[in-house]
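Slide 14.
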Amino acid sequence: MLQGDAVGGIVHSLRLDLLVKLVVATLLGGIVGLERELSAKPAGLRTNILICVGAALFMHLSIGVAEVGFSSVGQPYGDTTRIAAQIVSGIGFLGAGAILHSRGAVVGLTTAATIWVVAAIGAAVGAGRYVEAVGTTALVAVVLVGLRPMERWILAKRRTMSATLRVPPGVEFAELEEAIRSTGVHVLSRRTFDHPDDRTFELELVGAAKRFDAMVDLLQRRADVLSVQMD
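Slide 15: predicted structure.
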């Protein structure tokens, strides 16, 4: 009995329970963050790890602070959800920062949703709900990685069209591709031709018919696009 009390004292003094939670949060946040990093998303490996660890620590503190004092009937004076509840509202600021608005295009919604669910995973770890946290991480990995072949299959069933995009010399295609993807149209292939007066991109695109109309409207409003021709 004394030996058990001694072990419990060591665990309490060194905060080994908290250390285990933070390590688990680092691993789970890293699993999601690695996929985001490999996909070259704004919120990558380090960002997702920090979000998951921070949420776990806040959740642990929320439970611990509420149990500092107890009433005569054994109920804690504090509210165990008071600090934890702020994780949900606070993570919204990070999510909003991940969503980019540019000339009517909206990108980063998946990144924002990932940030939100990683915070939930961290909160679950902080509450000691390891099974729920690991299960959610596995489901998120399946959604982010496992559904890509299905997404490609769906895209292959949609309409394919060619487009010629003229822009001023030196304009890079990266921002234009983000704008195109924001309308639901995906670029299958691209060829670039440089001329003295302009740069021409010949594109092979796939998407729904109404998405192409939205794409053309969006590109024609851009100052760095001279003309758009659909074939």
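Speaker note: Residues 159 and 208 are 6 Å apart (CA to CA).
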